[in-house]
Amino acid sequence: MASHPPAEYGPEFLSWLRATTERAWREVDEPSLEDCRESGFIGAHWRRGTRWAGPLGEDPVVEAERRFGARFPAQCRLLLTTLHTTTPWMRGADHRSGELALHDSPGFYDWLDDEDPIRAALDRVADTAELAEELDAASGLNRRRSGGPSPQLLPVYGHRYVVGDESEWVLSIVGSDVIG
Hints:
Elements: H1 11-27, H2 33-39, E1 43-45, E2 51-52, H3 58-68, H4 74-82, E3 86-87, E4 90-94, E5 101-105, H5 115-124, H6 129-139, E6 153-157, E7 160-163, E8 170-174, E9 177-179
Antiparallel strand pairs: 1-4, 2-3, 4-5, 6-7, 7-8, 8-9
């Protein structure tokens, strides 16, 4: 397997990504709660032995689109039909319970089985009117001014979302902080 990724996104790149990430995940250290406390790390870590669970067939992709009212753009659809999701879930530490505690959360979302986490991720970005205006201004597409619909934001991994249109953008969204 090549040590450098293929220049173009496509099946070759995703094959390289699978091999590279699964090789790294075989060796990854899983920090304990004490490790997180000492380092001050808040967030999720990959688990030793994590692997890609795909591919997802075209029929389940269409069913996921129906269930979530989504339309996966071509590059996201290729990811789903090639790699789909990671298993096991990631392990992390945060203060959700009021004190530092370990928790598990999805890596790349499983569009067949992660309904609650996906719906929660969709709810976090449900009001996208302001973001849509910013996307239109940046992309020059002017969907809002032409009466077109706002693009749907589709969760892919944690707080990273694919913009459900032809732009192929991936955004990191935490609260009102958006990085594209």
